[in-house]
Each structure stands twice: as C-alpha cells, then as structure tokens.
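User: Hey, my collaborator sent me this sequence without any context and asked if I could get a structure. I don't really work with proteins. Can you help?
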Amino acid sequence: MHSQKKVLLMYITSNSGHYRASLAIENALKTLSPGIITMNINGFAYTNPFFEKLINRTYMSVIRNKPEVWEYLYDNPKVLKSVQGLRNAIHRSNSKKLKVLIQDEFKPDAVVCTQAFPCGMVADYKKYLGLDLPLFGVLTDHAPHSYWIFDNVDYYIVPSEVSRNHFMRNGVSDAKIRVFGIPIDLKFSKNHGEEDVYKRLGADSRKRTILIMGGSQGLGPVEKMLDSLERVAFDFQITVVCGINKRLYETLSKRAKRYKKKMLVFGLTENIEELMEASDIIITKPGGLTTSEALAKNLPMIIIHPIPGQETKNTDFLLQQGVALRAEDGDDVAVLVQELFSNSVKLDEMRKKADLIKKPNSAMDIAQLILQAIA
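Assistant: No problem. I've predicted the 3D structure and written it out in structure-token form, which is a compact way to encode the shape of the chain:
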C-alpha cells in the first residue's frame, strides 16, 4: 500500500537529540512500512553549510561562557519579533534549495521536522507556493517554545498536556496537536533482563548503580561529582558515559583503577538502554531525549547544570512531575544520592511517577500518524 511513498525527515546538528529523534521516527516508519523511502537530512547544513558551522560554534561558546545571554534570547517574544525579518530573509534565500529537494529531486509525500528551524523553513515554503504537503513538527523538549508556531504545519507532536495547552494559547487548533511524547528509539521499550545486562557490562548485580551522563559532549562537572560521590558512605558502583569527550574518557579510565568504589567508564555507547535498565539513579543534563529515555526505564533522575533556556524549562517540568531532583554542584549530588539511597520510599515514588508519564511508544505513534496522512 505504501510501497513507494517518500518521507523527508529534517533535524539540525548531528550530535543532538533532534537527530536521535529523527532516526527513531525513521526506524519506526521502516518497521511499519518496509517499502517506504526515507531521506534524513541536517536541514541547516543542507541549506546553509557555512552558517551551520558558525552557529554551532557560536552556540557552544555562548553556552560555555555566557549562558545568561542564551537564557535571554531563548523563547523571548521581543527577540522573536526582531529576528522575524532575518528569519524570513533566510527562508527566502533557502527556497531555491528547498525547491530542488521538495519539487524536483526527492519529491516527498510528507516532511517531518524535529527542530523548529527546518519546520519554519518548510512551512514558509508551503505558504509561498500554496503547496499541499503534510508537514509534521515534532518537539524534542518537554517545554514548548514560541519558535515552533507557524501557520502551515499540519500536525504538532508534543510531549505532554502542558505543551498542548501552550500551543493552544498561541492559536494552534487542538485538532493539529497530538500528545504522543518525545520520540525515542524502540529499544527503550524492551526489557533486556537486568542480570544479563550486569554480566555483559562486567558490573556487580548485588550493588546499587548510579549512571552519570553528560550529554553527547560529555559536559558538566563530572570529575568534581566523582570526588563527592567517593565520600558517600553507601556501597554502590558508578557507570560514566563520556560521549564524544575523549579527554574525559581517558582521564576517568585512568582514575577508575584507583577509585574506591567500582567504576565503569564508557565513551560513545550504543547500549544506553541497557545501562539505564541496570541503574537505580541517573545523574544527567536534562536534554529532552535522554530524560525521555530515562522515563521509559522508570529511572529516577538527579539533574545537574541545565543549560539556561530549554534545559531549565525541561528541569522545571521534570521537578513538577516528581521524577527528578536538581543538584547545584558535585557536593549537592552526593547529598541527594545519600538521601535517596537511605530512603527507598522516595526512590520508589519517583519510579512510579516516571511510569505514569513515560511514553515509550512515541516513535511508533508518530510513524502511524504519518502513514495515515500519506495513505
């Protein structure tokens, strides 16, 4: 039925949650409809390769050195108004490349965007040309923001009722909104068997386990945290995922040999779902994808150093839902770990709350909606 249907997926920046979400939807589409043809591209690199490098560099340096500037720019109605002209100009200059992709070469039956920039670009392109092309905007953070609001988006996939209400207040009709959750890989909804996982990892199944993740960049005060955790009286083991941060990986691998508690160190790893399944607590930055994956595994979270803007909003959402605690620094982390391990009632309560709000089948639900739209 869908044998030669085509879906174009767009994200920005390849080491990101947007990209992982895009891949999760693509996999779900291929699972449900093996004949489907997909193209998954970095919408920014495709239309503005020079800009993409510049903006990535600028964003990372602002986040590292002046996070309060990002906080001001992020979801600020005044800023939104003032960048409107620039955004329109960028969209217009991109329309030639989009025409080649959408009308001449790939000719998709639907477009799916996991980030607001390509979504706005395609929405404006549809508007100029009066195109009838189903466009899906998929949010990858728990808290919505106004950069997503465009006239020509057919469906918004949002994580929660909080986001649905935000969009409706901003004039998006309820009929366009689906509360499916943030799309995560299908493997997070499978059970991998804790005992087997411990064996494969070389971990001790009798010990409690803390998982530390600093995002794909391996950011955050991981070393200070480990100092503080070493002093906690409880016996537990620590698993650290360093992402693409090679320096951190090398430093911690050396350190693991003389660390008092058992510590396992990983770089970029493909089996996060197993690490989560074998853990009692995760200490992480509050990216939308990582926290949705943790929810899928009913894993209580300690959140550290959220980036001002979307991550602080994600943190607020997770704290309100009772599935996370927030730590200000490494010492704070140790205090919270001590508190949770000496209070199993609190830990269980956090697990139960995660179980109530998790949406592990989001990617499949989104894929089904796309296939219905192009049938």
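In plain terms: The chain has two domains: 6-184+360-374, 192-357. You can pass these tokens on to your collaborator as they are.
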